[in-house]
Amino acid sequence: MSTKSLPRRNFLQALSAAGVATAMPAFAMPGALDSYAGPVRHEALAPQAEPAPAHSINFGVCGISHNHVYGMIEAIKRGGGKFTVAWGMEPDLVAAMKKRYPDVKFVATQDEVINDPSIKLILSSQVANERAGIGVRAMKAGKDFLSDKPGITNLAQLAEVRRTIAATGKIYAIMYSERLEVKAAVHAGELVQQGAIGKVIQTINIAPHQVNQKPGGDMGSGLGGRPEWFWKPEQYGGILIDIGSHQVDQFLFYTGSTKAEVVASQLANVRHPKFPAFQDFGDMMLHGNNGFGYVRLDWFTPYGLGTWGDGRLFILGTEGYIEVRKYTNVAVAKQGNNLFLVDQKEARYIDCNNMPLPFGPQFVADIVNRTHTAQDQAQCLLAAELVIRAQMNARRSHVDWEDKPGLTNEPFPKENTPA
């Protein structure tokens, strides 16, 4: 190898790579695995038309504090729901919703929605710790209820929800959208149920999020573009309850576990010293009667990703495994709904973007037929219970280099979040 024309850094890199290559076994050399590689199949699910709604109901919204409510509304509309009445406490959010849904009646109080005799279902994305109370009142008023996640933030709320379900026979559903409204996650469930990877041993969920999706997106609040309640665990529930609820729902669903416990959990705040009660990292280990689970949560998605989070799901089975890259395929393609399946015969990539989402039609049918096809009631509440217990018992962990309160006047470190 000639080194005369190579800059010193390039020469050292080449020398290092050559040294590593000579130390590698033959089967690890580039190209040497070709003879070992099994079949690889790329496919896309065939386009499927959205089924026509089989039923029609009127529904209302009571609380619009989180914009997840828009996805919830659209899901119910796909199922045959007619959005007729709404209440919200934030004038700016009410104005935005009126612009999008000009035919909806907006009322001055929660009670006007809850006691409206013309609706069968109430949706809510009110501040998280207030959702269960709205749901209990809705069920007592004869309505079914669909909450944004987290739908319940403490054990007292959970007990009251369970008592009210038993007394009224009404449905208390929680929109765990990272499974119910992600096409690749839905197809993963179909494959698991078909036995495509054998018995499920473990799920791993990696769930990074982003405080702001646009640099400079403070929106004049001084709070990084988020409402004040976003930073307070007593209101949003804490990281394990909030974004962890999505992931524990998936653990229960894919493993088929009906009983489970939290083996260990921890949380931290390493980069948000202005909000010392906030939690920007957390993880937990779970054990169910039909499988194991691990969940990692954080608020550190870098802007270079191009979307709010690189959500990943890994499902390990006795005969293969599935990986779901939900929202992007990093450095390969911007599209989401990427599913990878490896079994004893081949490796497959499946583009799941063409499949319809079943939750809305199934949930409206459940309301009409008094069934639980869209979401199992016991599983829904078990997921809520597990994350509450994980949050309650979590170890508050620290690292030596974390930002400490009082060391900076900036709401966020500039290298990670908007100035």
From TrEMBL:
Residues 1-28 form the signal peptide. Residues 399-419 are annotated as: Disordered. Pfam families: GFO_IDH_MocA_C3. Transmembrane segments: none annotated. It comes from the Bacteria. Residues 188-323 form the GFO/IDH/MocA-like oxidoreductase domain. Keywords: Oxidoreductase, Signal. This is Gfo/Idh/MocA family protein. It comes from Terriglobus aquaticus.
